[in-house]
Amino acid sequence: FLPNFWSRVLTLSWDSYTHQYITEQAILNVTLDTLQQHQGHHDFQDRLGRSFWRAVGEVVHSNAEMDFLSSTRSDPVYHFDSERVESAVAMLRQFWAHTLLSVRANEYQSARHSLGQLFHSLQDFYSHSNWVEMGQRSIYLHLLQPKEPAIPVAEKCSHGGMLDSSRTMGAKGGINKDSTSPLFSPHHYLHAEAAKLASEDTLTVLRDLRDTVGHKTFLRLFSVKQAPALVFVIDTTGSMFEEITAARMRAYSIIQNRADLSGRPGSFLLVPFHDPEVGPVYETDDPNQFMEHMENLMALGGGDEPEMCLTAIQLALTHSPPLSEIFVFTDASPKDAHLFDVVKALALTKQSK
Asked: Transmembrane region positions (predicted)?
């Protein structure tokens, strides 16, 4: 497919689907569907602000770059060209693995970059291979799902079209379906069918990604605004034995008070800390489940008086949306006082209290 809107203008193929259009529409559709499933919100325009479109733009830019960067534009492995199907499939799966690793490490910019690369190769499969010519009318699941059956697929050695320097050499012609222009795409008459399958597979990848990492993480990946959370950071060392019940009751009171004042918060987070351990973070949208989980908190062990309080607050800030309220319960001074400036800066950036 052509990379973006401007390439469609230059080739005078106004009705061609581009990598940009397929990618933007897929991300928008799955994001809106996720918002509806996850929270039942209808104020979508407020949730999909500049930050969302900036994140989408990063994916689109990474996708288009594959056709422009010297390191990727002529390498058939990135574009399913020159009979390199197996190598291209392996590369596709590497992009998927890297995307997952980056998302799980909260490295969302890196994840968006590799996702754009993945989409480019995935979409090119339908435009550059003979999948459509074989009469296939559904997506090729084996590309990213090794357990699905493999089907023999090939590409013409010559890509074809005016932009292909090898179009008059060796295996002349080509089968690309990148556009509706006969000058640039020998199989232009199959462009719409290839675009339909590329769009469907792009949607499938996004849904699989969402189901793998979870709805909330998926929305964070695309910088969708999230409702502020109520966060409780609680010291569970032995010295808190008598205070832990009071802290739990105070947390219940805060949750109830916020529900009465402004409706239910977007989510509830709990970050326990117990020198030297901090976390794990517990998160739920259900206040009843959250309160049940807090019932299991016990104050045990401990030794010296200072505790890892600021590390716990940093973890809470990292995992909570902007504008969240964070309540800290402890009877100790911080052992990790060197983190004060870092935590303060993070709190100011997120405008959390």
From this structure: none
pLDDT for the residue numbered 303: 59
Angle between helices 50-65 and 19-39 (to 10 degrees): 140
Rounded CA separation 350/353 (Å): 9
Instruction: For residue 8, give both structure tokens.
Output: 């469609």
Tokens describing residue 107? 């490295």
> Tokens standing for 273?
């800390």
Phi, psi angles (nearest 5°) of residue 258:
-65, -35
Domain map (residue ranges) of the chain: 5-221, 229-350
CB atoms within 10 A of CB 240: 24
Q: CA dist 219 to 10, 31, 51, 60, 211, Å?
A: 35, 7, 11, 17, 12
What is the C-alpha separation between 328 and 310, in angstroms, rounded? Answer: 10
Q: What is the pTM of this model?
A: 0.70
Spatial contact of 277 and 302, defined as CB atoms under 8 Å apart: no
Classify domain 229-350 at the CATH topology level: Rossmann fold (3.40.50)
Q: What is the pLDDT of residues 66-92, one digit of tens each?
A: 999 999 998 999 999 877 889 999 999
Tell me phi and psi for residue 325, to 5 degrees.
Answer: -105, 130
Mean pLDDT (whole number) for 46-69: 91
How far apart are alpha carbons 115 and 97 in whole angstroms?
A: 10
Sorted by sequence, the CB contacts under 8 Å of residue 36 that are 6+ apart come out as none
Least confident of 110-124, 196-210, 243-257: 243-257
| Integer Cα distance of 34 and 210 in angstroms | 8
